[in-house]
Give the backbone structure.
Amino acid sequence: MTGIYIVGTDMIKFGRFPERTVPSLGAEVALMALDDCGLTMQDVQALYCGNLGEAGSGVGQRILQLIGQTGIPVVNCANACATGATAFREGYIAVKANMYDVVLCVGVEQMGRGLLGGGGAAGVETEGLIGSATMPAVFAHVGMEHARKYGTTFEQFAKVSVKNHHHSTFNPKAMYQIETPLEQVMSSEMISYPNTKLMCSVNVDGAAAAIIASESAVRRLGLMKRAVRIRASALASDPYSPRNLVMPDFNGATQLAAKTAYEQAGLGPEDVQLVELHDCFATAEIVHYENLGLCGEGEGGRLIDEGATAIGGRIPVNMSGGLLSKGHPIGATGIANLYEVTTQLRGEAGKRQVEGARIGLTHVVGMGSSCAVHLLEKV
């Protein structure tokens, strides 16, 4: 069976751009991804755009107005924090189905300041009655439940933030590139125990893009040298459980998507050398170590203590700095994770390069019930 490949990808430096529009950010990164592989809009046969915010409808079409309207079909996607990865997957499926040879996938977002997901909490009928559905509260609950079952400590959760902020110092495209010692993380403002302010993802503006191509197109265009093969693309929602009647199952969707991706690729977690996962809060990263099979159930705290997921460790996680430091522009996050792993597999990650990496995994999860997992392979 012929392969499907990422041939071009890039992301803008995440930050705050109040003077810009969402389409202009998307247009900028689309051109960057095209430049990365030496293609133009005339080579692109479809556009898949991910955006969740208040930019209005037709963001993909408005991007094309800025970089060249060619009459191609445009699909706009919104799928919580999995928005960008969903747009990418739609592009992958279309190429795999032989509908197109070359497609462009863009994820773009401008974020407000303050509470992640704060805009939707007021519409939750149970808010304040049986708890809170705000994201800091939900992921505090995730961490506390892990602590109850396995003895995971506040310090272990805080070490995730220390690690990811350290990794970000090697990533010039991250919003923050600063060290945050353990004491600073643990003593920063408490948002929702055990997550302090430095253990929460950063709301930023950002955009990322990727060009997906069929193997025939890659060979015809002479792009195989820097191409990265997409070995698996999986999307899942919560599996059925009678316990899911109140809260989303933040474990089940990831476990299901990971299982599907590993089966598609004929690989296991032991074959992966690099992971970019959805560390929207420090508690989430430790839980997802287990959900992705990087360690056994209840062993996530030990993994962070041993330094296994840090640069130079057995299975480096979030070398980009993760959502905690690189930033979390919701619609762009999934493709930004794919950009990081592609850059690593190309051997182009500079000081944060994971030496010898051949298989990388990306993971995003939105609202607990929308999870995307991709496996990429060095050619």
